[in-house]
Amino acid sequence: MVNWFQPPLQTKVEYRQGDTIIAVPAKSGTTWTMNIFHQLKTGGDPDFKDIYAEVPWSEFKEGPDQPDEELLERWKKMPADVPRAFKTHSSPGPEGTPLPEMGCFATYREDLKYIVVMRNPEEAIVSFKPFIEAHNPKAFEYWGEPEMREKFLKPTFQAFFDECVLPGFPNMPPEIVPPGGLLTMLFFGFVNGWWPLRNKPNVLFLHFSEMKADHEGSVRKIAKHLGFKPTEEQWPKILEYTSFAWMKENQAKFEVGTLMPFPFILPGGMVRKGAQGKAAEDGMSPEIQAVIKDWADKMVPDEAARKWLFEGGALPP
């Protein structure tokens, strides 16, 4: 596990009534959804410097010696009259409560709002390889793990899948890696935890494929769920600033550029293609697809949850 990723931190946050939790697995639309929240909140803001300063990541430590209290106090001091959102890659337990012993650290409360986005794990995991490679080498040095990045660098996606995905992160003891490795850690455990909450009135489920197919409709759906009411004059700006084209033109705003002594992500590494149905171009093969589907069958017992994770569509009751 990379040391800057600290899921237990989020259990210490003093959430306020009405806060939004943006819960998305890695490479499944997290940064996009964070930006959508920010643009809806502001009515269209092209001048922000760092989306991670606007929407904190509640699992992220900015330095190896940073005390939790520094982050918790900073978030506590965010203006009370301005809506807050927090990013998480975690799920709650199956009953909606944190279960740290199972790695389920997300908090579910009836007085909080949730945007839960998922993506076909075949597409997300092929995007994960170049994303890891785009982490600034200085970050690994800063955290005292310069050799970690080298362990992630593989010549092909097949090698990455065999040596990093199925066995888990290179520094994880094998006895704590769940069956299915990163597939379970990133995707299958996530859907298992959130799925029972899918029809709660304070929870909005979206699939990445739906967001790509209907950008405006998805943004308007999020606005309605969160109670944002932009004016007709603001809507064109919001839709422009949440488009992939605008985000790619303004990559530096999404690369965690102000919270550390250096940009956390190298230029162009956060907002890539956002492509749907193009996993084969990044190395996905029928053989790897079969392995992923097999692990999904084993690790996601709810057939409807499995189907929705891979395909999206209407949510079952």
TrEMBL record:
Keywords: Transferase. InterPro entries: P-loop_NTPase (IPR027417), Sulfotransferase_dom (IPR000863). Residues 18-297 form the Sulfotransferase domain. Pfam families: Sulfotransfer_1. Gene3D superfamilies: P-loop containing nucleotide triphosphate hydrolases. GO terms for molecular function: sulfotransferase activity. SUPFAM superfamilies: P-loop containing nucleoside triphosphate hydrolases. Belongs to the sulfotransferase 1 family. This is Sulfotransferase domain-containing protein. It comes from Emiliania huxleyi (strain CCMP1516).
